[in-house]
Amino acid sequence: MTSQETTSAGHTFRLPAQLSASIVGAVFPAARDDVATLLPAGLEPIRATRTRAVLTVLAVAYDRVGEDTIDPYDEVGVLIPAVETDTRTWPYLSGLRRGVSGYVYTLPVSTEPARAFGVDIWGYPKLVADIDLRDAGRTRHATVTADGQRILSFDGWRPPTIPAQLSGYNYTVKGDQLLREKTRLSGSVGIWPRGHAELAFGEHPIGQRLANVAVDERPLYTVAADCDFEIEAGSAIQS
């Protein structure tokens, strides 16, 4: 089912939204209790290992948004892989299947039209930030600052990729309503167990909140994709 949404910046998008992107990220084991405090009511963290949840960072360069509706932009997302309350998850298997889906905790972007695109349509917690995103060999570096304060720094190794199609869900809160957005990805995708990645949080209030989460230094795996990406309109989750 298709629909249209017009943002506060004056841009009209057809849903499901169609994007093209280059993604590098990492999925880090994290303390389950710490992660759970960042989730809204109705969600709980996945069991990524026998004792740990996970926290995911994705550094993304979009080169097409909609029908070239807005200019390309960069974003760096922090996601908490999660499921709806009382949904069963399995150690390791759920970490692989759901590691890049879940609740979007923060989503800094490099332009105002990109912020309006996410906030107005789905309630994504986007803010406009200074994003230094660059590739050196197989490593993507991202530093995110807002209001002169660093939110985070991330370095992730890009694993080899193969053709693949994946689907998942993102969760957001718009107003007081928890929403689920189905996502689909097709293109070149890579997942590499225990790949190299580094993550550090800064002095910005968002960074300080995330620094309270006990995150392992070594990721569960690193990910990469050069892909087309689709986001459906949000569906309300009844509590």
TrEMBL record:
Transmembrane segments: none annotated. GO terms for molecular function: lyase activity. This is Acetoacetate decarboxylase. InterPro entries: Acetoacetate_decarboxylase (IPR010451), ADC_dom_sf (IPR023375). Pfam families: ADC. It comes from the Archaea. It comes from Halapricum desulfuricans.
